[in-house]
Design a protein that fits this description.
Elements lengths: L10 H8 L9 H6 L7 H14 L2 E7 L2 E11 L4 E11 L5 E8 L3
Antiparallel strand pairs: 1-2, 2-3, 3-4
C-alpha cells in the first residue's frame, strides 16, 4: 500500500520543526546535506510526497488516534538523496493520512 497523494503535510511541520535547528532531535543539519533549506520548504514537501509515492508503506503500530505507517527509502533533495524513514498516521476519526515526522534511516 502507498500513502495517498492527498495526505496532509502541515506546513508548520516543515518550517517550525524539520528545517529549523533544534537543541534536541535536530533534523535540519541532516536535511541540509541533501540541499533542503528553510528558504524553500515546498521542495521538502514535494520530496516527502515523492518518497511516499515511490515506496510502499508498512504498518507500524497504532494508538488511540490511529494507525502508524512507515515509509523507508531515499529522500531526493536538490543536491543528493539521503536515506530516511518517514512516519505517517492514518487517523481513526476520518481515515485520512497525516505526515508525522522523518528521521535518518540506519544503513
Amino acid at each position: 500500500m502507498h500513502i495517498p497523494a492527498d495526505a496532509e503535510i502541515a506546513a508548520e511541520k516543515l518550517t517550525r520543526y524539520l528545517l529549523v535547528p533544534r537543541p534536541l532531535d535536530d533534523k535540519s543539519k541532516f536535511l541540509m546535506q541533501a540541499g533542503f533549506s528553510p528558504a524553500n520548504p515546498l521542495v521538502l514537501d514535494a520530496a516527502i510526497r515523492g518518497l511516499a509515492a515511490a515506496e510502499p508503506a508498512t504498518e507500524d503500530g497504532g494508538n488511540e488516534y490511529g494507525v502508524f505507517w512507515r515509509v523507508t527509502g531515499l529522500l531526493r533533495g536538490p543536491d543528493r538523496a539521503v536515506p530516511v524513514v518517514a512516519i505517517w498516521l492514518q487517523m481513526h476519526a476520518n481515515d485520512r493520512f497525516r505526515f508525522i515526522t522523518l528521521k535518518p534511516a540506519r544503513t
